[in-house]
């Protein structure tokens, strides 16, 4: 399908449009935000050359993906402070034990779930650059306030609000990446984006190592929170000045480059750039679509394993023979493996494009093997256990981020359906993570066999099987659509305020995948 939008200057009559049963027409306010911009600049902008395309892609990767990568890494460092604080005196200072620690992790995701409804509304109603700035700024304040925590109740409140603030951070950043990056680049860079949170234990691990080695009088855990909170505050300032709302408002792009970006997104991804009107019918369709629930099922089951990365340090301690300092270094090393695994997934997607579903499935295999080994090996086999835990904890995240991308890219060009489906899968993610910490019960220590069994069966076997079913259903839809697709089916019309009908790429109409039969699902 051509990435060039059908020219904006072509006018037709309503009778001509209505005579074509497969043609869609919408009012300007319900179409893509980019319609007016393209109406003004598209006709006068030349086609992009291969050299210009490479230069533009490099700019977008550094300015957009690089920024979202940095934000995600630092925010994940914030979230991980609790785990690293657990080995630097935080438990003793606040009265936590294993079960209370699990409850604190659960409460974080209660806040995460509560934040989905207001967060989804705010994404569609307000500029996303201002929203992500507010999240980062308030997040830094919450981390600073951890330094004042002195009891279990205080920690509960702080972690609830941290989860509430984070609830829509990933959807915002994934939405931003989707606004700027073409379909293929977006697919192959999803594991790279996820590597940001997998890489976060590397800097925070070394910071924690240094803090533990220094032995500050105010408490090592307070120093750690001050450092990480300070980094997040600086990040919020950076966001305020350079985070883009959308390609049309991106100051680092020329007018010509903005046109090229819109053509890329509507042509390759078959998606709208942005739409600020909530469409009730699209929201209802998101809830009725079985694909939504299959992807939600994947998140619900797979994320039962998500407490494992936070449990790593504690598991290393209970194995014996590892000091707090050394267990931190082991966590850093296992995070290095996670980054390499993410890069391997990106290389696979580069060599074999349009294989997102397959990538979700095969990237889960090391976690399955590692979990089986972890529960089968005796704790006395320290090297084997270390390898098994690291393998289990640091592989399945690639599938998580690819599934999140799949939820967005299979919703058609509809901005509302994408956001509602985002909220659905993140709610499933929240429920699963509310349950996940409770699997690691103190009475099951040190082997935690029930937790491992749940992960082996549900997280690493049944969950990827659901993605296999998604692939099968969408493959059948694609087969039917490709057989019926005709060249003029990709044309749509927007009715402006003067009542004129303007010919556009159908992706600019902000339709759902079920409304637009020309939409071919990226699998």
From TrEMBL:
Transmembrane segments: 60-77, 131-152, 158-180, 192-211, 223-243, 325-352, 359-380, 386-407, 419-440, 452-474
InterPro entries: MFS, MFS_trans_sf
Membrane-related topology note: Multi-pass membrane protein
Gene Ontology CC: membrane
SUPFAM superfamilies: MFS general substrate transporter
Keyword terms of this UniProt record: Membrane, Transmembrane, Transmembrane helix, Transport
Top-level division of the source organism's lineage: Eukaryota
GO molecular function: cysteine transmembrane transporter activity
Location in or out of the cell: Membrane
Protein name (Swiss-Prot/TrEMBL): High affinity cysteine transporter
């Amino acid at each position: 399908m051509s990435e060039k939008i059908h020219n904006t200057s072509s006018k037709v009559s309503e009778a001509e449009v209505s005579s074509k049963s497969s043609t869609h027409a919408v009012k300007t306010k319900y179409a893509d935000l980019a319609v007016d911009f393209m109406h003004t600049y598209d006709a006068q902008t030349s086609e992009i050359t291969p050299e210009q395309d490479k230069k533009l892609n490099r700019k977008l990767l550094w300015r957009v993906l690089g920024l979202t990568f940095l934000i995600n890494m630092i925010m994940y460092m914030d979230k991980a402070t609790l785990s690293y604080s657990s080995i630097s005196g935080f438990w003793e200072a606040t009265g936590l034990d294993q079960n209370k620690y699990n409850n604190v992790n659960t409460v974080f995701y209660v806040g995460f779930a509560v934040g989905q409804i207001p967060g989804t509304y705010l994404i569609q109603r307000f500029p996303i650059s201002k929203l992500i700035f507010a999240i980062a700024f308030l997040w830094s304040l919450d981390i600073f306030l951890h330094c004042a925590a002195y009891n279990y109740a205080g920690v509960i409140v702080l972690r609830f609000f941290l989860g509430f603030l984070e609830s829509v951070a990933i959807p915002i950043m994934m939405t931003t990446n989707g606004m700027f990056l073409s379909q293929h680049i977006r697919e192959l860079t999803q594991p790279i984006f996820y590597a940001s949170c997998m890489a976060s234990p590397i800097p925070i691990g070394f910071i924690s190592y240094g803090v533990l080695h220094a032995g500050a009088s105010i408490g090592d855990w307070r120093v750690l929170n001050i450092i990480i909170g300070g980094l997040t505050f600086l990040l919020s300032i950076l966001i305020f000045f350079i985070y883009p709302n959308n390609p049309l408002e991106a100051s680092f792009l020329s007018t010509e480059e903005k046109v090229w970006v819109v053509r890329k997104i509507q042509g390759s991804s078959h998606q709208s750039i942005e739409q600020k009107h909530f469409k009730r019918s699209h929201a209802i369709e998101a809830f009725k679509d079985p694909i939504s629930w299959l992807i939600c099922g994947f998140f619900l089951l797979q994320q039962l394993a998500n407490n494992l990365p936070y449990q790593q340090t504690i598991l290393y301690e209970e194995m014996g023979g590892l000091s707090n300092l050394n267990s931190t270094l082991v966590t850093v090393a296992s995070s290095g493996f996670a980054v390499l695994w993410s890069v391997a997934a990106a290389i696979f997607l580069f060599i074999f494009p349009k294989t997102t579903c397959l990538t979700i499935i095969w990237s889960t295999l090391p976690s399955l093997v590692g979990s089986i080994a972890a529960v089968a090996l005796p704790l006395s086999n320290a090297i084997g256990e270390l390898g098994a835990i690291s393998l289990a904890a640091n592989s399945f995240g690639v599938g998580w981020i690819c599934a999140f991308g799949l939820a967005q890219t299979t919703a058609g060009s509809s901005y509302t359906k994408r956001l509602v489906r985002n909220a659905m899968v993140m709610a499933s993610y929240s429920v699963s993570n509310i349950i996940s910490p409770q699997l690691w019960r103190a009475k099951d220590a040190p082997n935690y066999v029930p937790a491992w069994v749940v992960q082996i069966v549900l997280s690493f076997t049944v969950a990827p099987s659901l993605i296999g079913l998604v692939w099968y259903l969408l493959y059948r839809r694609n087969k039917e659509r490709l057989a019926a697709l005709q060249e003029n089916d990709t044309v749509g019309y927007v009715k402006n305020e003067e009542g004129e009908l303007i010919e556009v790429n159908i992706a600019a109409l902000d339709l759902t995948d079920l409304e637009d039969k020309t939409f071919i699902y990226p699998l």
